[in-house]
Design goal:
With 347 residues, the protein is α/β, with parallel strands linked by helices. The protein is 30% helix and 22% strand. The radius of gyration is 19 Å and the shape is globular. 41% of the residues are buried. Residues 304-323 are annotated as: Disordered. This is Peptide O-xylosyltransferase.
Length: 347
């Protein structure tokens, strides 16, 4: 069974279509609505979810793009999912503008074929993304609805190696138990609570610097088309009906992003696709999705002397890999302020 955490801040009608597409009895679901989205959105979604079993609403708090509040919401969601049911094996996080490319039967079969694997993008931050090191080398604060750079420099955690990727993941229950409850994860929570864009680095860093969590597949199982947009280095393009064939053929499990105010036909096409044999039955023979078909095994050894080497299954990707670029507004200076507008640009 699968546990889903859904982070929502707008578009209730689109959320309902997403939820219907991923709902399956036995799965568990926790939904968090950004407190700043207003009571009307919360009430509408709560009413919609009432008939469904295995679904809970998480206490709404502000979820500020760039802030640790996004990590906090996800940790609270993970912890609640662990309490709700003891049988689920994998955790998946989604936004309200994602959509599945495969049915729940297919997804369950996929994870059964890849037991113990963590699907999360993880790169050595200092080596592969040195342009982002200011996110952790200086202290940042969430204050009055915005991110503030204090200008205070700080060293990184002694003996640990920072990693970075995207906020999207499909990870095992055992990892969720560790990151939520193990004392070994506390130092990471303390440090990253004062960092910038922690949701793209916190979980990767915990995974690669703590106990052995198994093979980490350098893949988040999402089909995303990253495109440049003005001052934003990269943003996810909204898919439309012209992308259907590519989406239909993808071996990824999910895609993002979709905007029902921009185009709705693509969602209707995908809803029909989910009923097709190709989307219902996983026919793999041990292979992972398209981003890892040409996978090479990389041995990444942590700087921590007591840590064993960790294996990441890398990939030659056929889709744009977000970690190789900034995926939001460029923040080259260590001192700046970021308002809520950034969240709307980057979600």
């Amino acid at each position: 069974m699968i546990a889903y955490f859904l982070l929502v801040h707008r578009y209730p009608a689109q959320f309902k279509r997403l939820f219907k597409a991923i709902y399956m009895p036995g799965n568990q679901y926790v939904v968090h609505i950004d407190k700043g989205s207003g009571a009307n959105l919360t009430e509408e979604i709560t009413d919609f979810l009432t008939p469904y079993q295995g679904v809970e609403m998480l206490e709404s708090k502000d979820a500020l793009w760039g802030g640790y509040s996004l990590v906090d919401a996800e940790l609270r969601g993970m912890a609640r999912l662990l309490e709700m049911d003891s049988e689920w094996t994998h955790y998946i996080n989604l936004s309200g503008q994602d959509f599945p490319l495969k049915s729940q039967n297919y997804i369950r079969q996929f994870f059964a074929a890849h037991p113990g694997k963590q699907f999360i993008r993880a790169l050595d931050q200092a080596r592969e993304r040195p342009d982002t090191m200011n996110r952790i080398s200086h202290v940042f604060k969430e204050e009055h609805g915005r991110m503030t750079a204090t200008g205070i420099a700080r060293p990184y955690m002694l003996g640990d190696t920072p990693f970075i990727g995207t906020q999207w993941k499909a990870v095992t229950r055992s990892f969720c138990e560790y990151v939520c409850h193990d004392p070994g994860a506390e130092r990471f929570k303390t440090f990253y609570s004062n960092s910038f864009i922690a949701d793209e680095a916190f979980f990767q860093t915990v995974m690669m610097n703590s106990i052995d969590h198994g093979t980490v597949m350098n893949d988040d199982l999402r089909m995303i088309d990253w495109v440049p947009d003005g001052d934003i280095k990269l943003r996810p393009r909204n898919y439309d009906e012209n992308d259907f064939e590519q989406l239909r053929r993808s071996t990824d499990l999910f895609a993002r992003k979709f905007d029902a105010e921009y185009e709705t036909k693509i969602l209707s096409l995908l809803e029909s696709h989910l009923k097709s044999p190709a989307a219902i039955r996983y026919r793999g023979s041990g292979e992972v999705p398209q981003t890892s078909l040409a996978a090479r095994e990389l041995e990444l050894t942590s700087a921590r002397p007591t840590q064993t080497s960790r294996t990441i299954a890398g990939s030659v990707s056929t889709k744009t890999s977000a970690p190789m670029q900034e995926n939001c507004i460029s923040h080259d200076l260590p001192k700046m302020e970021t308002g809520r507008e950034s969240e709307r640009l980057c979600n």
